[in-house]
Amino acid sequence: MPEGPEIRRAADRIEKQLTKGIIDDAWFAFDELKEYPPKLIGQQVERVETRGKAMLVRFSDQHVLYSHNQLYGVWKCHMADKEPATRRSLRARLVVNGRAASLYSASDISMWPADRLEEHPFLARLGPDLLSQSVGEEHIAQRLKEPPFYRRGLGGLLLDQGFVAGLGNYLRSEVLFFAGLSPRQRPCDLSEEERRRLAHYILALTRQAYRTAGVTNCPEWVDKAKSRGESRRQWRFSVFEREGLPCHRCATSIEKVNIASRRLYFCSHCQSLSV
């Protein structure tokens, strides 16, 4: 499933597609949304935001289209007179100046008044979004000390969208590796310096993945991995999906475990699992 950086990049494409004119056409598959297409004609898309893995399309009439791709949903940008090559089921379409953004296969779609959006049951549970909201390292470090998170194992906490929104499985492994921490450790086990370092990499690697289309590895390690003939699936990461391959830093073989029912990759030399 795409993580926060991939959803934010998709939001950027949709925003570019739809914010340069008024809405010419709109269509929704679900009966509860059928009243909205006539209301949206002539309105504008003001911006497209993300909250973790949810997408928010804000209209000039102060309505917001909420969607969550879940496992199979995908947005496609295309010319309105040319259907994308897909067998997926169309769920929603917005057209501006002959350019369309179409949502396929998603089932979690709803329309909300902007001033009630935070009442959405999913959004109400989310922590701050690292790419669409103003979030600093100090804010993340402080959240690590809050009661709901302070005694949670890092391996599970970093997947909890209530802590910060947008972190997913590959970012979890990458953050812990660069922070030099065990997934078994808890925020309460860490020094102030370790919490600050963890907060730094949570933010820095999420932003790096956004800028680089999912590459979280160091440039010099990427070059060395490419010279060894590694595929993009392997060289783009420091540890994720690198089981059995050498650690970029110390050459120890990368290992894999399951924590919080998800696979996690780590270096036993750079990160201790004994805690």
From TrEMBL:
This is DNA-(apurinic or apyrimidinic site) lyase. Belongs to the FPG family. It comes from Vreelandella azerica. GO terms for molecular function: class I DNA-(apurinic or apyrimidinic site) endonuclease activity; damaged DNA binding; oxidized pyrimidine nucleobase lesion DNA N-glycosylase activity; zinc ion binding. Residues 238-272 form the FPG-type domain. SUPFAM superfamilies: Glucocorticoid receptor-like (DNA-binding domain), N-terminal domain of MutM-like DNA repair proteins, S13-like H2TH domain. The keyword Zinc-finger applies. Keywords: DNA damage, DNA repair, DNA-binding, Endonuclease, Glycosidase, Hydrolase, Lyase, Metal-binding, Multifunctional enzyme, Nuclease, Zinc, Zinc-finger. GO terms for biological process: base-excision repair. Its cofactor is Zn(2+). Its EC number is 4.2.99.18. InterPro entries: FPG_cat, FPG_N, H2TH_FPG, Ribosomal_uS13-like_H2TH, Znf_DNA_glyclase/AP_lyase, Znf_FPG/IleRS. It holds the Pfam family Fapy_DNA_glyco. Residues 2-94 form the Formamidopyrimidine-DNA glycosylase catalytic domain.
